[in-house]
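Run ABC-type Mn/Zn transport systems, ATPase component through structure prediction, thanks.
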Amino acid sequence: MARNTLSRSLHDVGLAAWFGGTLANAVALNPAAAAAGSDRSTGAVANAGWDRWTPVNAAAIGAHLIGSVGQLVGNKSRVAGQSGVATMSVVKTGLTVGALAATGYSRVLGKKVSDAGAVPAGSGTAPAAGTPSEVADAQRQLRLLQWAIPALTGALVVVSAFAGEQQRETEVKTGVLKRFTPGA
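Sure, done. The structure for ABC-type Mn/Zn transport systems, ATPase component is below.
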């Protein structure tokens, strides 16, 4: 079996950055922006932080996706021949699509907030009394998405760990036997 070090590295490092960066921003940046000194500064600080994170996050997601395809290609015989691997791959794909959708929609909302400029805000995801309604609506949605993205990418980390366990020699043997032995 050939080594897949590059694709594993891209998959894992990309996913780690996607998960960790979004979690850090939800836990730290969004609430910390409230310490900026004024409602208008709060919005500006949060926008600056998220705008700086966006290209790094895009690169991380790209690396993860390239690594994922490499892993799928490198394991195509296991996907076809080992019981449970195809199901795990479908679950991983579904989680990835969900995380991509949540991230993409979050960016659309974040751009709406950022394009509004230094509007008043209570935190990165909480409107203040003077926040324009369109921006406040986007912030309310972002308040949920800031947790949905790390939840989805965290689930991907767990499924990836399970996928690694499926590659143990005993798991491969048992899975292949199950696949080709009815009733086993």
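Strands lie at 121-123, 126-127.
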